[in-house]
Amino acid sequence: MRNKRTWAALVIAVIVLPACTQDAPRALGTLEWDRVTLPSPVAEKIVRIDVREGQQVAAGAPLMQLELTRTQSQLAALQAQARQSRDALDELRTGPRQEDIAQARASLAAAQAQARDAQAYYARLQPLGRQRLVAASDVDRARAASENAIAQVRVAQAALLELERGTRAEQIAQGEAALAAAEAQATVQSVSLEKLNVVAPRAGRVDSLPYKLGDQAPVGASLAVLLVGEAPYARVYVPQAMRARVRVGDAARVRLEGQETTYPGRIRMIRSEPSFTPYFALTGQDAARLSYLAEVSLGKEAAALPVGAPLQVQFDDAH
């Protein structure tokens, strides 16, 4: 009887012990910082580097400088075009000069004098033509010359009237639009010139400088990568079996591989879509292979931990 009781106690211990020692749900990942990448605005040579990898920098601190010559020349050309457009607009607003108006009046007077002379000549030929003392073709030419002179008077009158009335409102509007476009292009180029002096947008630590002094990075290539923020975070992959029990805001404990110290954290993000979704893994036993990317924010006490270190996250408040 005693042997039976002893055997039963051992069986119960074997069953209860794993349940008592079973750990809380865990996820694996790495330690990361928020990263700021500074792309190359133009394909220019690096002429100066002011920092080194691993250096702590303040917001606005110079990081490097690209060659300025070509961008400065382009900016000067655009600024010259803007000045030209501004002067043209001022000319439109001022209107015609008094000398131009006086010249138009003189041209009108000359046209009127020619018209009177042509009309008088035609008037003299008309009776001679009726008496057949001159050829009919001479009379016709005199009539055409008279009508042409009268038309020239109308042209001169219209030209004088145009100058006296000044510039049209539509022309001024076109000049204003041309000036605005030229100034906008100059402003864009000025901003591009400022970007050639690469500065830190936020305080942080220089993580990477992919290019060296004298290199010419292509447009959009990463010139510098900064690690920013007050503390790092844990980037982990939550297994499918744990996904339903892990929520944003839950507390967690983070421990680096090979260390006993744990750091408190809290889940700040978890993706709704799994990182790996093959068709055959959507049902059945293979569904357990799915994982969901999550981020666990840490406190300032974790600021000295190495970036990229492997870690484990234990979710204390898993539901």
From TrEMBL:
<dbReference type="Pfam" id="PF25881">
    <property type="entry name" value="HH_YBHG"/>
</dbReference>
<dbReference type="InterPro" id="IPR059052">
    <property type="entry name" value="HH_YbhG-like"/>
</dbReference>
<keyword id="KW-0175">Coiled coil</keyword>
<protein>
    <submittedName>
        <fullName>HlyD family efflux transporter periplasmic adaptor subunit</fullName>
    </submittedName>
</protein>
<dbReference type="InterPro" id="IPR050465">
    <property type="entry name" value="UPF0194_transport"/>
</dbReference>
<keyword id="KW-0732">Signal</keyword>
<feature type="coiled-coil region">
    <location>
        <begin position="68"/>
        <end position="121"/>
    </location>
</feature>
<feature type="signal peptide">
    <location>
        <begin position="1"/>
        <end position="21"/>
    </location>
</feature>
<feature type="domain" description="YbhG-like alpha-helical hairpin">
    <location>
        <begin position="72"/>
        <end position="190"/>
    </location>
</feature>
